[in-house]
Amino acid sequence: MINGDPYVTQVKHVKMIGPRRAEQLARLNVYTVHDLLYHFPREYIDRSRLISLYERKPGDMVTVVGRVISCQENRPRPKLTVTKAAMEGDRGLFYAVWFNRVHIKKMLKPGTRMYISGKLVKGFGNLEVQVHDFEIITTGGDSLHAGRIVPVYPATGGVTQRMLRTFIHGALEEWLQNYREFLPRRVLDGEDLMILSEALKQVHFPDSHALAERARRRFVFEELFLFQLQLALLRRNIVRVEKPYRYRPSNELIKKYIAGLGFNLTSAQRRVVREIMEDMESPHPMHRLLQGDVGSGKTVVAILTLLKAVESGLQGALMAPTEVLAEQHYLSLNRSLAPLGVRVALLSGGMPVKDRRSMLEKIAMGELSIVVGTQALLQDDVVFNKLAVVVIDEQHRFGVRQRGSLQKKGVCPDLLIMTATPIPRTLSMTAYGDLDMSVIDALPPGRQPVRTYYVAPGELPRVFSFVARQVAEGRQAYVVCPLVEESEHLDLQAAENLYQKLIENELRGYRVALLHGRMKRADKEQVMQQFRSGQVDVLVSTTVIEVGVDVPNASVMVIVDADRFGLAQLHQLRGRVGRGGDQAHCILSARLRSREAAERIKAMKFSQDGFYLAEKDLQIRGPGDIAGVRQSGMPEFRLANLIRDRDLLQAARRQAMALVNADPELRAGEYHYLRLALERYSQRGGGYYHIG
Ligand SMILES: Nc1ncnc2c1ncn2[C@@H]1O[C@H](COP(=O)(O)OP(=O)(O)OP(=O)(O)O)[C@@H](O)[C@H]1O
């Protein structure tokens, strides 16, 4: 045992790791002893019993030891390189074969001893192993690398598996004693979890596959538990605070606004508004998530929430994830609130310094009632006079950190978070476990399902003729081209070409406009304004219209290259039509190059329910798709996988809530190490959302 704290001790102090190795390990994000011990294997190879090749059948996965006798590289076809090594095994000759590993031959010098894992095949009477994985045996003790279940780590150039095993083994020997169990006894027992020191041993050098799995389970739980505990504590902080402002009971402004809407609120909207108003009238800050499918009428609810503050002489802020969205919100708020005498402002990033300064002054004086902007609203120089409520249109871009930073700013306003893309019910509690939940679960009356079709790109001319007929009947249409991220330029080109083609052919004589992200703000606004007021029939656009656009007379959505969009995005886009009473159509044109693309289109044709599609999206992507989880807005974890580990997630949440309910400060002596672990976890920014 060594004195010191594994969380802060640099990894170069572990035996056999010097400064040079430490630099290489840094590339694996391993800086401290703790990082090293929490560098978990990505898989294991079973070398506990090396069974002779002669006792195995073709098709079996095998692991054997062999010594290279000779090696040959062939290129039977232009894109195929076959490297074949003759090897001496325990009872004679066999061949090891690599496909398309062009540099492998250099490593296979005669005399080299290695472990080989792969598939056994019979080739012309010889035994042959198609290699999946191999490891060169160097001199020295082999007990870590053979005769056992052996860990395989995420590695990087220069750091080999054998080195990692040796380093980690050394670190375990020296440092394991320094690890204190921090999960409370009750939790360990209740969830039948392996204790920390045992789990650290078993996760790296397991005595059996079952024990490796139990160890993994403990670390997954640990990660989810700390995350949930963080949320539970965030929530507890909110509940304890008393708001500095109270709202007046009068609702004149709200009534006026509702009277001017031209429709009645749906019962789902009314219920949600009631939930929000009750929160706002309570002495503690609101902390609520508003979920609702596309077109379900969230904007109205957001406006009512902000008006409640204005009504009482207080201020409200609306935060959007991007400038474009902030602009759109600003325009729509201003349109409906200016007539009521409510002063709304847009605080945008690109403002001239002078304008910004004067706007900040007005915000500080309380002359502006509602301020719309991006997360720039959180900057230090933005000081409100009486900020009572913040509505965050989240769109999956903000996260726990932002919620925390509002609190840190010393303000504890009422908080309403809106998400436009429904989150699968089973997952929403992970990311939003600290929030109360309101769901608008019904669409306004009179909406008809959008008819959804798939066409091959060759059929597009026919589709545009259909668009022309609809326009002739007085409807409006969107034509969307995908955003090619690598090249904004190409993207623009595609939209421009299509626009030219349409005005010369199928849509000649109609009023067609082009909209893209590179246009000046004023020009964009003008085009949108024209489309909204019906002066433009067809809007050809890149994805700038994805969210927030609301033109009820638009009834056709054509999406070109629909295979480039994710399911959530397609659903968002389709949600731009079918917002009025007319029958709406959505036409998806794509080349179906992959199974996933085909499945997405199928799901779109099958369902209009955002919650269903969100679940489906995760299914199609599969649990291994980290990027998919990221896009869905979920926090990222090191080990836990929110789909595979759903049960553990629920357990972690239950335990975290119970703990905070029983001891809201985690004051009891037995929680000393838990408090420490939690502190470290949040310092590392554990389990936050991907921002951007
Ligand atoms: N109760 C209602 N009855 C009829 N129409 C409504 C009702 N509530 C909202 N609408 C209208 O439905 C359309 C969609 O509403 P809104 O823009 O608020 O949806 P949203 O939930 O914000 O959708 P998205 O996430 O797609 O932007 C708007 O044209 C709005 O005026």
UniProtKB/TrEMBL annotation:
Species name: Desulfallas thermosapovorans DSM 6562
Cross-referenced Pfam families: DEAD (PF00270), Helicase_C (PF00271), RecG_dom3_C (PF19833), RecG_wedge (PF17191)
SUPFAM superfamilies per record: Nucleic acid-binding proteins (SSF50249), P-loop containing nucleoside triphosphate hydrolases (SSF52540)
Described purpose of this protein according to its UniProt entry: Plays a critical role in recombination and DNA repair. Helps process Holliday junction intermediates to mature products by catalyzing branch migration. Has replication fork regression activity, unwinds stalled or blocked replication forks to make a HJ that can be resolved. Has a DNA unwinding activity characteristic of a DNA helicase with 3'-5' polarity.
InterPro entries: ATP-dep_DNA_helicase_RecG, DEAD/DEAH_box_helicase_dom, Helicase_ATP-bd, Helicase_C-like, NA-bd_OB-fold, P-loop_NTPase, RecG/Mfd, RecG_dom3_C
Domain called Helicase C-terminal: residue spans: 459-619
Domain Helicase ATP-binding: 279-440
Gene3D superfamilies, alphabetized: Nucleic acid-binding proteins (2.40.50.140), P-loop containing nucleotide triphosphate hydrolases (3.40.50.300)
EC number: 5.6.2.4
UniProt name for this protein: ATP-dependent DNA helicase RecG
NCBIfam families given in the database record: PRK10917.1-3, PRK10917.2-2, recG
Principal EC category: isomerase
Protein family according to the UniProt entry: Belongs to the helicase family. RecG subfamily.
UniProt keyword Transcription, yes or no: no
Catalytic activity: ATP + H2O = ADP + phosphate + H(+); Couples ATP hydrolysis with the unwinding of duplex DNA by translocating in the 3'-5' direction
GO biological process entries: DNA recombination; DNA repair
Keywords of this entry: ATP-binding, DNA damage, DNA recombination, DNA repair, DNA-binding, Helicase, Hydrolase, Isomerase, Nucleotide-binding
A GO term, aspect molecular function: 3'-5' DNA helicase activity
Lineage: superkingdom: Bacteria
